[in-house]
Amino acid sequence: MKEFLKKCSLLACAMLTLGIMVLGAQSASAKTPLQKWGRLQVEGRNIVNSKGKKVQIKGVSTHGIAWFGQYVNKSAFKSMRKMGANTIRLALYSDKESGYSKKLYKTVDKGVKAATELGMYVILDWHILNHGNPKTDQKKALKFFKRFAKKYGKQKNVIYEICNEPNGDVKWERDIKPYAEKVIKKIRKYDKKNIIVVGTPTWSQDVDVVTQSPLEGDNICYTLHFYAATHKEIIQSKLDTAYEMNLPVLVTEFSICDASGSGSVDKKSGRKWMKILRKYKIGYVAWSLCNKPEAASLIKNTCTKTGNFKKSDLTVVGKFVTRQWKK
Ligand code: IDC
User: Fold this and answer.
1) Which of 114, 128, 201, 271 could form a disulfide with 206 if both were Cys (CB 3.0 to 4.6 A apart)?
2) Which atom of ligand 1 lies nearest, measured to the CA of 292?
3) Residue whose CA lies nearest to ligand 1 atom number 20
4) What average pLDDT does the chain have?
5) Pocket flag, ligand 1, residue 292 (CB < 6 Å)
6) Is 159 in contact with 194 (CB distance < 8 Å)?
7) Which of 164, 158, 159, 239 is nearest to 199 (CA)?
8) Pick the catalytic residue: 165, 181, 216, 294?
């Protein structure tokens, strides 16, 4: 009997240990991106986690939140996280014609809250596009970043993108750099550490130009955008130059269709880009989380849900992007 009891208690002990191990493994794998990495920082040409290890942002951008604000919700973000995303980009177009209104700050707040609850990184994207020169909307930008840096500057998961895509008659030294200096100064009043991403000339393609005269200060990186069916070797060689010159780059917007966001999809070119980004450990964020009938949309036009997405709800581009996230 004694022997039997001893065996039983040994067995119970073993089972308990196993149980603890299983639970431990579960909670380890259930860590959110933020729990895994902590605050992201720029070190040399890399984005690193709080321990200094190189990490790759993998994310999805909303479409303009004036038009597709319904996708700014926790359930939508959660399904993206499940599919491999660690970052959400909230795109607020800066011009009235594209729906800019201060009322949309509430949507930004909602997006930050949802991403934060999910332990995801969140990029606040001041989406200049129609107004190609960031100086045009500078006053508004300063107010925008003041408000949000003040509100979220202490959080570890916030990233600021201060001018989506400068374009037209815009020069780095003459226009973007002085704009960036002003906006960065404003953000740094409230947020000393989080990453600030700066747009580059020609729809955020000319990262090579920036290498001639980068900005002063910590935790600043530069963005390169590409649409793989349109942008190929020429833009890739700009990225090579930036990398060789130690410029930190983050791809805050890309797709594998053409630059209009529509047209044909070029997976071969997309795969080549992904290979380069993996080699350089450069993060990337896909345009866009919505069901608009255009190639870049991640969600099928026939899918009317705004959250809890399944693989079968994804477009060709959506499937491509989520497959890359898992790599
Ligand atoms: C596109 C949208 C499209 C919208 C258009 C104008 O996909 O539905 O009508 O903007 O607002 C960018 C821009 C991004 C563009 C995207 C595709 O940052 O706003 O979105 N693109 O054209 N740069 C290169 C491509």
Assistant:
1) 201
2) 8
3) 261
4) 94
5) yes
6) yes
7) 164
8) 165
